[in-house]
Amino acid sequence: MFTSGFSRSLRGFPDGNYSVQHTKVKASAEGVTVVFDKVVAGTYAVGVYYGRNNNGRFDTDFLGYPAEGYALSNGIRAVLTCPRFSDAAFPVGSVDAYIRVDVKY
Length: 105
Description:
Shape: globular
Structural class: mainly beta
Number of helices: 1
Strand content: 15-25%
Order of helices and strands: EEEEHE
Oligomer: single chain
Radius of gyration: 13 Å
């Protein structure tokens, strides 16, 4: 399952518990499209992870490094610290926004 979160807040990013909207969809080798409706104009960030064991959370190893595939908007990757909202943020206005993320392992 892919879990996607659409966040508007610095607090708790990229944890899906603080997202404006989030959803779970079945993974597919061809790709997955997720649509978030009724989004108010503002600054947002997207986070996605592939939960291969379906435990409902993003797994990390004993050092805190990702143990599952993930992606964040703007292509940012967490290296030595937790990703920052400001690095993944993008504007959403009155026109539909299209964001592509590529899950990496």
